[in-house]
Amino acid sequence: MAKQILVAVFFCMGSVAAGEVSTRVCRADGNTPLEYIDIMVGTKLKIIVSSDLAEEWYAGVLVIEEEYMQNRGVLYGRGFDGNQYAGSCLPDAGLFAAVFPAVLRGQGFELVGGEEPNAGDWFIFDYNAIDIGDCNVAFYDYEISETEPVDVLSFHHVRTRDFDNNTKVDFADFAILALYWQETGCNAPNWCEGTDLDTNGSVDFNDLMLFSDYWLETTQ
Question: Cα–Cα–Cα angle for 25, 81, 151, nearest 5°?
């Protein structure tokens, strides 16, 4: 199956350790945990930075690591006011918490802790898979290390099964696959409207299996 269930440190796409600031990944609704790393191009996710202690925190950074900055995934902040992303700061982060564009690392954001925080969710960001391939999002907690990340969220982007771009893999997409069934001569960049999922030049049983792995999956 394309959906690889995560174990150990990346369960629910996050690292959770007592007394630490940590990250987790959810679907676009912000509540449903993401339980696998293979995601379709077009999928939108939420990355949440939280703490299980109501203790003041210095700062950190959430970035797409430079080696993966090939336009495979994009991080978005919320509510930019010309200086910082105020909408990415959640109430539990405390007074005067702040999010700024990252300067010294990859594409992402510098996070500054607030005064009198509560245990809970502190910061929220949007993530969009925009091209196939691997993409790592690293979280650095400056109270622990400024050179080594404490969390690395590893995504593998695969070809979309949402052939009609209606944000859901459903019967309409199956009809498009059926239209190209047993078609040969598929090639880049169209690959028979994307139905040749393994890009071997034909639409066959293997493509059907790859398609079924994401049945009723949404990209929103």
Answer: 25
CATH class name, domain 8-158: mainly beta
- The token pair at 166 is 């209606």
Sequential DSSP letters for 18-43: TTSEEEEEEETTSSSBP-BSEEETT-
Residue 137: its H or E element: strand 133-141
pLDDT tens, residue by residue, 188-215: 999 999 999 999 999 999 999 999 999 9
Helix (H, G, I), strand (E, B) or coil at 16: coil
Terminal CA-CA length for the chain: 22
Residue 61: which H helix or E strand, with range?
A: strand 59-64
Contact 58, 94 (CB under 8 A): no
Cβ atoms of 58 and 115 within 8 Å: the answer is no
Structural contact between residues 129 and 72, judged by C-beta atoms closer than 8 angstroms: yes
Burial class (CB in 10 A: 0-12, 13-18, 19+), 161: buried
Question: Over the stretch 80-100, which tens digit does the pLDDT of each residue have?
Answer: 999 999 999 999 999 999 999
Which pairing describes strands 133-141 and 59-64: parallel, antiparallel, or unpaired? antiparallel
**DSSP letter string, 139-171:** EEETTT-SSS-SEEEEEEEE--S-TT-SSB-SH
Per-residue DSSP letter, 173: H
Q: What is the pTM of this model?
A: 0.86
Q: For the chain, which residues make up each domain, given as ranges?
A: 8-158, 171-212
